[in-house]
């Protein structure tokens, strides 16, 4: 069974999807981490992020070395879990996400990783592009202010020096890009269930997601 969780930045997709996968005993596929990893690798190599051919080449070259296991993201022998969550990488990841060649490479990788498995996949285009036939599609969202506050607190807790206004401004820019990019744009699938997490604790979000998955399992007879 494939469960997709799409939604805007800061909606809490990664943490909710990870917890849901653990509860279900499914594999968790953090697709956002893949685009971040490409960005991290490109910057580390000194590539120009405006050079689409260069960043596409980086994506192809690191794909065999990219491992998502539990809460960790590994690139070859390097643990890049924390490094790819910095404000710098978050802001620069748009270059990888907007590149059609990068998206093609990573979509193929995502499908390979999910082949024959029970998976919870989170991202922007999981239900519309990567797994359009997923048995359970969820569109997770939250208000703009709640999303920005979550992202701000997350960054501060990691020791980064950012302001709430700066985070909100970057989030608005990211929302605009995510909804308007030519490939993999953020859109709600027509058969997705929308769920707003405003005012809910993380455990409450996961419980509701468990209910949604259980209902879908009954509906599809799996």
Automatic annotation (TrEMBL):
It is an enzyme of class 2 (transferase). SUPFAM superfamilies: P-loop containing nucleoside triphosphate hydrolases. Pfam families: Cytidylate_kin. ATP binds at residues 7-15. Residues 164-184 are annotated as: Disordered. GO terms for biological process: nucleobase-containing small molecule interconversion; pyrimidine nucleotide metabolic process. It catalyses: dCMP + ATP = dCDP + ADP; CMP + ATP = CDP + ADP. It is found in: Cytoplasm. Its EC number is 2.7.4.25. Its main location: cytoplasm. Residues 164-180 have a biased composition (Basic and acidic residues). It comes from the Bacteria. Residues 3-213 form the Cytidylate kinase domain. Keywords: ATP-binding, Cytoplasm, Kinase, Nucleotide-binding, Transferase. InterPro entries: Cytidylate_kin, Cytidylate_kinase_dom, P-loop_NTPase. GO terms for cellular component: cytosol. GO terms for molecular function: ATP binding; CMP kinase activity; dCMP kinase activity. Belongs to the cytidylate kinase family. Type 1 subfamily. PANTHER family: CYTIDYLATE KINASE (PTHR21299:SF2), CYTIDYLATE KINASE/PANTOATE-BETA-ALANINE LIGASE (PTHR21299). This is Cytidylate kinase. It comes from Pseudobythopirellula maris. The lineage of its organism: Bacteria, Pseudomonadati, Planctomycetota, Planctomycetia, Pirellulales. The gene is cmk.
């Amino acid at each position: 069974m494939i469960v997709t969780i799409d939604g805007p930045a800061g909606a809490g997709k990664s943490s909710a999807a990870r917890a849901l996968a653990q509860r279900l005993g499914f594999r968790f596929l953090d697709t956002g981490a893949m685009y971040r990893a490409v960005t991290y690798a490109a910057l580390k190599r000194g590539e120009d992020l405006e050079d689409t051919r260069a960043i596409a080449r980086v994506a192809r070259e690191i794909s065999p070395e990219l491992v998502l296991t539990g809460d960790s993201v590994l690139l070859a022998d390097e643990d890049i879990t924390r490094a790819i969550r910095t404000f710098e990488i978050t802001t620069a990841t748009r270059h990888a996400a907007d590149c059609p060649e990068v998206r093609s490479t990573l979509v193929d990788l995502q499908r390979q990783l999910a082949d024959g498995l029970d998976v919870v996949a989170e991202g922007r285009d999981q239900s519309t592009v990567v797994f359009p036939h997923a048995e359970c599609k969820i569109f997770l969202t939250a208000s703009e202010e709640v999303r920005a506050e979550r992202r701000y607190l997350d960054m501060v807790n990691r020791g980064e020096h950012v302001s709430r206004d700066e985070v909100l401004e970057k989030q608005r820019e990211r929302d605009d890009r995510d909804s308007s990019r030519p490939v993999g744009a953020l859109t709600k699938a027509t058969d997705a269930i929308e769920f707003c997490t405003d005012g809910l604790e993380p455990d409450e979000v996961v419980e509701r997601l468990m209910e949604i998955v259980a209902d879908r399992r009954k509906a599809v007879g799996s």
